Structure formats: structure tokens, C-alpha cells
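User: Run a structure prediction on this.
Assistant: Running it now.
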Amino acid sequence: MKKIDHALMTAMAQNAKESPRLRAHHNFHAELSDPVNRLAIHLKKGTYIRPHRHSESHKWELIIALKGQMGVLIYDGMGVIVDKFVLGADGDTLGFEMKPNTWHALYAISEDALFFEVKPGPFTPTAEDDFAKWAPKEGDKEVVDFMRWQELAKVGESYC
């Protein structure tokens, strides 16, 4: 039996803290080729998840908050925010499901945030065309400004 318990959450928090990317994943699926991918993802405040999409026609995503609060941004193809909300274990929105080809990004609002993700497999790394060209690449000097903008931006706004 696989469990999401406090021991796992503590270990993931430590792994995220030690990671240069300030996040950690724990797969519940046995193989990346499994037909359904299930994973817990721990975010430390300050991690950058570049806006991206999953363009394969079957790649929907279900995300459920387990701990803390996260900002969720949904963009159109030009980088305009079409939806923005707080996802949190103790908030109004506990989870959401996205259709394939939805541009999205998440960021930690609280110091530690944890969510559970379910999506069709097999796992394939995100193709370069599925990362937003209107958002800085991970490691670019603009990332800090972009992250600050995401936190303050409102529906209808774009970074460019």
C-alpha cells in the first residue's frame, strides 16, 4: 500500500529544500510508462515553474492541494492571464482539472506547498514548444521579475 503520510511529506519538504529547483516529486506510479501517472509535488516558496502546456490531445491534468497555498495562473496562447486563483488545502479551491493544451503555471504562496497530480501516461518530458516563449527560461535573469509579476498580475494582463 502506498500512503501520503506525514513522514513522506517531511521527507519531500527536506528534499525540496535541498534541491536547487526548490521542489521535489514523489511518484506513486511504478514506471514512467504507466498509463496513469500519479505523483506528489512539494514546492518551496521561490521555485519557478515556467508556464507550459501539455499539447498531446489526451494529456489532461488533475491537481489536488494537500498542504499550503499555491497560486495558479491559466494563460491564453499569447500570455494573457485568463484565470488566476489560489489553490489550498484549507481554501475555497482544493483542486482542479485542466483540459489538454492549457497554458498554466503554479507558484508557492506559503513557504511549503504540496499537491497531488494525476494525468495520463506515459510520462514524456515537456517539449520545448510546450514551454511559453513569452516567459523566461528557468535560470534566466528575468525569472525573479516574472515571478513577482505573476504574484501581482490580474486576469487580462500579460507580461510583455
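The chain is about 15% helix and 35% strand.
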